[in-house]
Design goal:
The complex is a heterodimer. By secondary structure, chain A is α/β, with parallel strands linked by helices. Chain A has 3 helices and 7 strands, in the order H-E-E-H-E-H-E-E-E-E. In chain A, the strands form 2 sheets. A 4-stranded mixed sheet of chain A has the order 4-7-6-5. In chain A, strands 1-2-3 form a 3-stranded mixed sheet, covered by helices on one side. In chain A, helix 2 links the parallel strand 2 and strand 3 (about 70-75). The longest helix of chain A has 15 residues, at about 55-65. Chain A is elongated. By secondary structure, chain B is mostly helical. Chain B has helices at about 20-40, 50-75, 80-85, 100, 105-130, 135-160, 165-180, 190-200, 205-225, 245-260. In chain B, helix 1 (about 20-40) runs antiparallel to helix 2 (about 50-75) and helix 1 packs across helix 8. Chain B is globular and about 55 Å long. The interface of A and B includes residues 108, 137, 139 and 140 of A.
Chain lengths: ~160, ~270
């Protein structure tokens, strides 16, 4: 049986299907790894409630572990504590930027309801200019917003703070 | 004008055997029906970004509904999962408020309806995230984060439409006037609420919720240069299974695949 550390190593090779430069561990959705005899239980939390990638991620986790000889794999979904982009570490944020996605800003404190945006301009991941504007808070996937850079004229995705 | 009194023991409802199940159905059905309504815009949005935004919001709402109906099914213990509850119940068994089943109409109707519901939903989630029912509190905390984006989006659209051209202003006002009579039901309080407060520790102060909602709505309506309707006459019935005819039409489209091919997977 693999050690918990080795299992985390395997999970670190399972990439988010929609943002294939960061792993499910870096994304912060792996909440726990539990080993009991020959069975491994991986606890994960969804990014967005309606994210269609969750089932894909579940299958990818299973496949990766089976390939390493772990056959009794259980993937458990928990909602609490709710996933936040604050769990994405500095290295993963750099990977996002290099991939062309502006990393998320700080998430709003839980409960606070504001009708106006608290965030200032999002930095362009390509030319690092701050002269950008929000095109739409809803992008190609639930986790992204679309911005446009006035300096390099590129549209770009932002990983929304959640 | 006096409002019709809200009676719990309606002819078409069975006695409330399982209040927590009933309560979760109400929450889940609101989001499932509204999510489906928004999904009807897919491919018809006025601009590409809006088409994507409405589809994204639909996805979130259906995600929330999935969590709520799955929990309802577990509590009911009759072997019904989220899919069974969504696709194999008729309109009379649906417990959504009438507001969310109102047909999309023009873009102003869709956005005003969304705004009125989003404002209610974020306030309700905020309250429910602190309730003592662990499973529901977790769903509430999670859904609140996503609904905040919806509220920001819909409130900005209400301001843009109201404070826009003469025509957009007029259409937004018309939408607000016609949808207003469905908002009272959101803040109704009945035996189901009493029972979940006593048994499941889910106590929501409906009057406080209503007044917070009014403050939020007034602020946006004012910024949109619209006029808040004052007609107190309210239509209700959805929570007891008395729906408008449009819900049946909607469910027919929504349920046809699941009912024609029960148990199919792809």
């Amino acid at each position: 049986m693999l050690s918990p550390n080795e299992i985390y190593g395997v999970l670190n090779t399972v990439m988010d299907p929609e943002v294939p430069v960061i792993s499910v561990v870096e994304l912060g959705i792996v909440r726990d790894v539990a080993i009991q005899n020959d069975a491994v239980t991986i606890t994960i939390t969804p990014t967005y409630s309606g994210c269609p990638a969750m089932r894909e991620i579940e299958a990818d986790i299973r496949t990766a572990l089976v390939a390493r000889g772990v056959h009794d794999v259980h993937v458990k979904l928990v909602l609490s504590p709710a996933w936040t982009t604050d769990w994405i570490g500095p290295d993963a944020r750099e990977k996002l930027r290099a991939y062309g996605i502006a990393p998320p800003g700080r998430a709003e404190p839980q409960g606070l309801i504001t009708l106006t945006r608290s965030r200032v301009a999002v930095q362009c991941p390509f030319c690092r200019s701050n002269d950008t504007r929000l095109q739409s808070e809803f992008g190609s996937t639930a986790c992204k917003a679309i911005h446009v850079c006035h300096s390099c004229r590129q549209p770009f995705d932002e990983f929304k703070a959640l | 004008m006096t409002e019709p009194s809200f009676q719990v023991a309606a002819p078409r409802s069975t006695p409330i055997a399982n209040p927590l199940f009933e309560y979760l159905l109400r929450l889940g059905d609101d989001r499932l029906v509204l999510g489906h309504r928004l999904s009807e815009w897919c491919g018809h949005g006025p601009i590409l970004e809006e088409d994507i935004a409405l589809s994204n919001m639909a996805l979130d709402l259906i995600g929330h509904a999935t969590s709520l109906l799955a929990l309802a099914g577990e509590i009911e213990r009759q072997g019904r999962d989220a899919d069974k509850l969504a696709y194999f119940r008729d309109a009379v068994a649906y417990r959504n408020a009438l507001l969310v089943e109102i047909p999309n109409g023009d873009f102003a109707v869709t956005m005003v309806r969304q705004f009125l519901f989003d404002a209610y939903s974020v306030l309700l989630w905020d309250a429910l995230s602190r309730c003592e029912h662990e499973g529901l509190a977790a769903i509430a905390a999670k859904s609140l984060k996503e609904d905040k984006y919806h509220l920001r989006h819909s409130s900005e659209w209400v301001v843009r439409l109201g404070d826009g051209t003469e025509e957009s202003h007029q259409r937004a006002q018309q939408a607000l006037d016609s949808l207003w009579r469905y908002t009272g039901e959101l803040f109704d309080h009945d035996a189901v609420d009493d029972a979940v407060a006593a048994e499941a520790f889910i106590a929501i102060d409906h009057d406080a919720l209503h007044s917070l909602w009014l403050t939020m709505v007034k602020d946006v309506v004012q910024r949109a240069t619209l006029t808040l309707p004052t007609d107190p006459a309210m239509r209700r019935g959805g929570r007891r299974g008395f729906h408008t005819e449009s819900l049946g039409h909607m469910l027919a489209a929504m349920q046809i695949v699941a009912r024609s091919h029960p148990g199919a997977s792809w």
